[in-house]
């Protein structure tokens, strides 16, 4: 019985000291967590490839199988610009909509479902 009390006390000590559970003081891990999220966010969209993968993934996450959805990605090297056009039911989706799609996504896991996503990639030299 004494051993169980010691184990319970040990767990309670970890909860109090490390995670501030049941304490009135702020959790010391909050600042570490904020810094980790800040560092991850800085690296997450640092490459165009990750951004495009995230944009492609989002329709899988938000059930676009209800719509006629297509994504056209045009990379024009001579113009120093990348054009991204998203079509849904034959109407062009605006910048605001793309931002909403990206905010809905929380990971980079590509979910394979029966949703049809059309990706066209053209390079003009």
From TrEMBL:
Keyword set includes Transmembrane: yes
Keywords: Membrane, Transmembrane, Transmembrane helix
Transmembrane segments: 66-86, 98-124
Name by which UniProt lists this protein: Transmembrane protein
Species: Medicago truncatula (Barrel medic)
């Amino acid at each position: 019985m004494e051993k169980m009390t010691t184990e319970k006390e040990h767990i309670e000590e970890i909860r109090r000291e490390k995670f501030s559970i049941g304490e009135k003081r702020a959790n010391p891990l909050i600042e570490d967590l904020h810094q980790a999220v800040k560092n991850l966010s800085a690296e997450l969209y640092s490459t165009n490839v990750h951004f495009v993968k995230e944009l492609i993934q989002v329709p899988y996450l938000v059930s676009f199988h209800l719509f006629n959805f297509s994504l056209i990605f045009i990379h024009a090297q001579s113009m120093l610009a990348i054009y991204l056009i998203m079509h849904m039911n034959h109407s062009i989706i605006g910048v605001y909509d793309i931002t909403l799609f990206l905010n809905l996504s929380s990971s980079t896991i590509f979910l394979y479902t029966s949703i049809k996503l059309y990706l066209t990639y053209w390079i003009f030299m």
